[in-house]
Amino acid sequence: MSASVSASDDVWKGVWQGIRTGAARVDAATPAGRDRAVDALRALAILGVVLGHWLVTALVADGDGVGLRTASPLQHLPGLAPISWIFQTLAVFFLVGGHVATRSYRSARERGTSYGQWLRSRLSRLFKPVAAVLTLWTVASVLLLLSGTDTATIHTLLKLALSPLWFLLVFAALTAATPLLLRLNPLWPLAVVLHVDLLRFGFGAPAWLGWANVAAGWLVPYTLGAAWTRGELERRRSGWILLTGGAVATAALVAWAGYPASMVGVPGAEISNLNPPTLAAVTFGLAQCGLALLLREPLRRAMRRPLAWAAVALVNLSAMTIFLWHQTALMATTAALLPTGHLPGLHTLPDHLGWVAARLLWLPVLTLALAVCWAAFRSYEQGGRSGRRRGRSRVVRAHRPSDRAAATGVRRA
Predict the structure, then answer these.
(1) CA distance 27 to 22
(2) Which residues does 51 contact at the CB level (< 8 Å), separation at least 6?
(3) For 193, phi and psi rounded to 5 degrees?
(4) If we measure between CA atoms, which residue out of 325, 43, 318 comes closest to residue 164?
(5) For the chain, does the N or the C end have fewer beta carbons within 10 angstroms?
């Protein structure tokens, strides 16, 4: 028995030593001038999106145990709204995306690269992994229809699987407009959001007017990213102004202007802060951007640790895959275990804290399902065999993760 335990310990020691050695190689090969905080912020934003969706999205089994419908613990437990404050990280995605896109465009101009070449390069990295998602869910939808699955369930699954794609369209549009946004003051799109909300909620303007905020709302953090590139946000005071100003404004809007406390959509709610973005969502995003700017130096220090930096580099290389497939991992787990009964935290109504505790216990299983999706579909992000070889070399060089993930924006959910 002791010999078996000793052999097992030796195996784990060997694995751990191999991980440490690989991480040290990534760290040593990273260019000295690289701002690792950018990659760290992106990785944190990605994890925030994934965990946020997994914690506030429930697929509830119907009474017959066949159909599925969406629900949210925020719908039944409004006191959990602060969860959305932690995991709604879209503003950080756009902040980092704007910073890296404007920096990339400036570099392209210095190299003599045309706008068309620059844009094609960025959008190809953005949209190539989408083809796999669309293909799989097209086939799955046909098979579900042929198997007699009710259309309401199919609609529920498709909406969850494809909802992240809206971000790609918005981010692609802002990326294409980058040359026009290099010096745009974020106060201008913020003013648009303010006036749109004033017309909608104060003067009874049509609800469709709010969709103007889809562009204007996300322009605010995107142009803040451009200001970061210009060096206008380097002082810590900038971060504190954004954090405190955004937090105070958001609190005031929620307390006295009737905006929802949740920063994500809640089924059945009259107003959503996210669909389309409201002034409260934008001011909340300003606070998030301020916090992100304040975290840059601590993150730079943390990223000096080889293991931490290697993990961040790996997440950035797989940013699109993680983002596009995390909802599919949730649905696959839920559907695969549906025949076993209505499992707490997976198929049951999220109307009590016990559901939240049970969902936390399911997170490792959902992570495993996402890992399977990653193994199956990461080649679409990295471009087949040659792309996988390039991806491995990029991890070793730790040179490309920022550019790739910035092109994806991934920051989207």
Answers:
(1) 9
(2) 87, 363
(3) -60, -45
(4) 325
(5) N
Q: Is the pLDDT of residue 413 over 60?
A: no
Give me the helix-helix angle, 115-127 and 90-111, nearest 10°: 140
**Token pair recorded at residue 362:** 């399911």
More confident residue, 315 or 403: 315
**Where in the chain are the domains?**
40-408
Q: How far is CA 281 from the centre of its chain?
A: 16
Peptide bond into 276 cis (omega under 30): yes
Phi, psi torsion values for 305, nearest 5 degrees: -80, 125
The secondary structure of residue 198, as a DSSP letter, is I
C-alpha 181/C-alpha 28 separation (Å) is 36
pTM of the predicted protein model: 0.89
Strands 58-61 and 68-71: antiparallel
- Of the candidates 134, 123, 92, which has an alpha carbon nearest to the alpha carbon of residue 413? 92
Q: Please check whether residue 50 is in contact with residue 164, taking contact to mean a CB–CB distance below 8 angstroms.
A: no
Inter-residue contact 90 to 218 (CB < 8 Å): yes
Name residue, tokens 């943390």. 302
Written as six digits, the tokens of 45 are 């934003």
Q: What is the pLDDT of residue 6?
A: 65
DSSP summary character for residue 277: B
Pick left, alpha or beta for residue 264 (phi over 0 → left; psi -120 to 50 → alpha; otherwise beta): beta
| Of the candidates 396, 336, 340, the residue with the CA atom closest to the CA atom of residue 366 | 336
Q: What is the pLDDT of residues 151-195, one digit of tens each?
A: 888 888 898 888 888 888 899 999 999 999 999 999 999 999 999
Predicted pLDDT at 383:
63
Specify the DSSP element, H or E, that contains 58: strand 58-61
Query: At which residue do the structure tokens 């920063």 appear?
Result: 263
Side chain identity, residue 198: L
Please report where in the chains the tokens 């994934």 appear, as a residue.
Answer: 50
Tell me: pLDDT of 4 over 80.
no
Q: Is residue 412 within 8 Å of residue 157, measured between CB atoms?
A: no
Per-residue pLDDT reduced to its tens digit, 64-88: 656 788 899 999 999 999 989 999 9
